[in-house]
Amino acid sequence: MQVKFNVIVAAAAALMAGSLQAQELVVKIGHVGPTSGGIAHLGKDNENGARMAVDELNARGVTIGGKKAKFELLAEDDGGDPKQGTAAAQKLVDSRVNGVVGHLNSGTSIPASKVYSDAGIPQISPSATNPTYTRQGFKTTFRVVADDVHLGGTLGRYAVDTLKGKSIAVIDDRTAYGQGVADEFEKGVKAKGGKIVKREFTNDKATDFQAILTAIKGAKPDIIFYGGMEAVAGPLIRQAKLLGIKAKFMGGDGICSGELPKLSGGAMEDGQVVCAEAGGVEGKAKEGMDKFKADFKKKFNADVQIYAPYVYDSVNVMVAAMVKAGSSDPAKYLPVLAKTEGYKGVTGTIGFDEKGDIRNGALTLFTYKGGNREQIAVVR
């Protein structure tokens, strides 16, 4: 009798477990960033932002279409390389992810976007700023930061109007991001009547800048703009100091990290570098960002570099669209995601225009003092 009772209990338990499993919805969120190579610390920062969002969503017990959702993060490394980026994108498509947050760089986000578009999978980039990304006619591409037209142009105007630059040199790393933001900076300078005295280029893996800096020194610029990432910008600033170049340095969000002073080998002087981050909050909204940074530090024992909050918001915006649509099926929640308006994230209010760009995107201007990054202003 006891044996029979145990069999019944076991059968009931199995039935209940099966029923619960049937009611649980597995949602796969893909993330891609360079977690190897010169900017691996930025890629890991992004991945941690995604992991934090996924862990919180699972702890909260989100339901989609009446089913409890279990979120899984599928993280891939693109090494900041376009070919590796498309391979990572295809791997996520083959894994049947419900959505993708990434990639970090414009140079990887743009080619990967076609892979996701062909598969009908929504992609939100937390940091790709090249305008081309959202201007290819794809319905699946979104971003939560302002683009280079806004970022580069604003910095160009700031160089002339506020920093009173008379002779300005421009260097870029020939990537989609670096060259794009440098081109827009140059347009912004010229629109304000500023003078570009030299335009040089390097690459995103270079370590020796003697030749281009010597050429630039002869033009006697008072401002040097670098379009690229901080792994190159730091050594560039250090070598410029060794050559006796006294110019101020400017750059976009690619150089605007807490690691820049260290990467420059302590060569930066207070106020010498001005950079802009695509995004920004002020007033009471800043309390949410401060809390996020504190929670992030507690969870990962690491400070936020640049983009982790934007990754965090991207994951949550994507899931909010799934909840509203009552489905994690990309074809069903994509139209809802495209109509996102007024979402309150830690990086500010998020809404998308018809191209998938963030509406009224903010920029935050920073400088460095005592080896620490200090906010100058938030502009729109």
Structure report:
Residues 27-371 form the Leucine-binding protein domain. Belongs to the leucine-binding protein family. Residues 1-22 form the signal peptide. It is a single chain. This protein has twelve helices and 15 strands. It is α/β, with parallel strands linked by helices. It folds into two domains: 2-145 and 285-360, 3-Layer(aba) Sandwich (Rossmann fold), CATH 3.40.50.2300; 148-278, Rossmann fold. A seven-stranded mixed beta sheet has the order 8-7-9-10-11-14-15, with helices on both faces. Strand 12 (343-345) and strand 13 (348-350) form a beta hairpin. The longest helix is centred in the N-terminal third of the chain and has 22 residues, at 2-23. The protein is elongated, with a radius of gyration of 23 Å.
Key structural traits:
alpha/beta, elongated, Rossmann fold, single chain, 380 residues, 21% strand, 2 domains, 12 helices, 7-stranded mixed β-sheet, 6-stranded mixed β-sheet
